[in-house]
Amino acid sequence: MPAFTAPDGTTLAYHVTGDGPPLVCLPGGPMQDSVYLGDLGGSAAHRTLIRLDLRGTGHSTVPRDPATYRCDRQVGDVEALRVELGLERLDLLGHSAGANLAVLYAARYPERVGRLVLVTPSVFAVGLDITAGDRLETALLRRDEPWFAPAQAALEAITSGRAEPADWEAVAPFWFGRWDREAREFRAAERRQRNDEAAAVYASEGAFDPGAARAALAESPSPVLVVAGEYDIAAPVRVMKEYAALFPQAELLVQSRAGHFPWRDDPGAFTAALAAFRDQASAPPPGT
């Protein structure tokens, strides 16, 4: 398995699958083993997927300093991976919390980003507001599901600030377009794959400066694709529209009947969207 050394000496692993132009993939969680991304619904058929195991996750080593789990301090890891790969510019995909790292990298190294794909992105890095109403309105799209009533009650408890520990698991069906056996197995694996210590540091104080990030992204030269799930209570469509509007060259794809993991809910639609985005005319490099 290939590996490289981060600026602070931590050894980081990455995984290479597929064929075609390289696409560097940053996992969410936060701080979850990148294995859950798989081949992104078959995207490896037209892209070489390069999945980074963030420090302290998957096959990457635990850093000496736990403070380096903070999101902004991992931007240097992504740049070190670019150097390791010998790429002048990265096509970069960030899922969920991994989108925070992707946009911080794009803000710091705009000249190093070719295309940017943000899949059901977390909004911490850019400071957008997701209201309880956004989540509850999205949840109502699932009102005909057999599991809806207890899941909705748990979501109402969470959004009103009166959640019990069991409520967080009770809302799990909302994360998936289909709450079936495969989704339950995927959910169970998530708990084993996450580094909880690292996750607690990832978005800690000082990690994000939303005003500075939005100002930098407003000047971004890169084409951007924001992928939202119609059913996703974590990244509701209204807010994803605001997210896409932060960039000069962005398009929003709302994948029908998809949750937080759209490549699982409709692999064909997801891979077709990525292929179409790849094939669009490229923007010229900055300064040309």
Output the keywords.
alpha/beta; 288 residues; single chain
Protein model, in words:
- This protein is an alpha/beta fold.
- Helix content is 35%, strand content 16%.
- The protein is built from 11 helices and 8 strands.
- It has helices at residues 75-85, 98-108, 132-139, 148-159, 165-170, 181-193, 196-202, 210-217, 237-244, 262-265, 267-279, and strands at residues 3-5, 11-18, 22-26, 48-52, 90-95, 113-119, 224-229, 250-255.
- Helix 1 crosses helix 2 (98-108), helix 2 packs across helix 8 and helix 3 (132-139) runs antiparallel to helix 4 (148-159).
- The termini are far apart.
Secondary structure blueprint with pairings:
Elements: E1 3-5, E2 11-18, E3 22-26, E4 48-52, H1 75-85, E5 90-95, H2 98-108, E6 113-119, H3 132-139, H4 148-159, H5 165-170, H6 181-193, H7 196-202, H8 210-217, E7 224-229, H9 237-244, E8 250-255, H10 262-265, H11 267-279
Parallel strand pairs: 3-4, 3-5, 5-6, 6-7, 7-8
Antiparallel strand pairs: 1-2, 2-4
Helix pairs in contact: 1-2, 2-8, 3-4
Give a summary of the structure in a few sentences.
With 288 residues, the chain is α/β, with parallel strands linked by helices. Helix content is 35%, strand content 16%.
